[in-house]
């Protein structure tokens, strides 16, 4: 997610619509184990990325990074 954020030209300080900075930071640093799908979708939409890319899914094989 950090890469997607940087590609979007955003900082963590840029408040994400309805997501606290503390929650987002834990997600990005992988300290939060469970993330609601609707929250992931919100972040993907904000960055203009497909959800699969944020999840690290690569290609048609369905493998994850």
Automatic annotation (TrEMBL):
<keyword id="KW-0614">Plasmid</keyword>
<dbReference type="InterPro" id="IPR010982">
    <property type="entry name" value="Lambda_DNA-bd_dom_sf"/>
</dbReference>
<dbReference type="Pfam" id="PF01381">
    <property type="entry name" value="HTH_3"/>
</dbReference>
<protein>
    <recommendedName>
        <fullName>HTH cro/C1-type domain-containing protein</fullName>
    </recommendedName>
</protein>
<feature type="domain" description="HTH cro/C1-type">
    <location>
        <begin position="1"/>
        <end position="54"/>
    </location>
</feature>
<dbReference type="InterPro" id="IPR001387">
    <property type="entry name" value="Cro/C1-type_HTH"/>
</dbReference>
<dbReference type="GO" id="GO:0003677">
    <property type="term" value="F:DNA binding"/>
</dbReference>
């Amino acid at each position: 997610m950090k890469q997607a954020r940087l590609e979007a030209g955003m900082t963590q300080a840029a408040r994400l619509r309805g997501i606290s900075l503390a929650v987002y930071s834990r997600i990005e640093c992988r300290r939060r184990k469970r993330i609601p799908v609707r929250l992931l979708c919100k972040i993907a939409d904000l960055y203009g990325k497909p959800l699969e890319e944020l999840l690290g899914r690569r290609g048609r094989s369905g493998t994850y990074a």
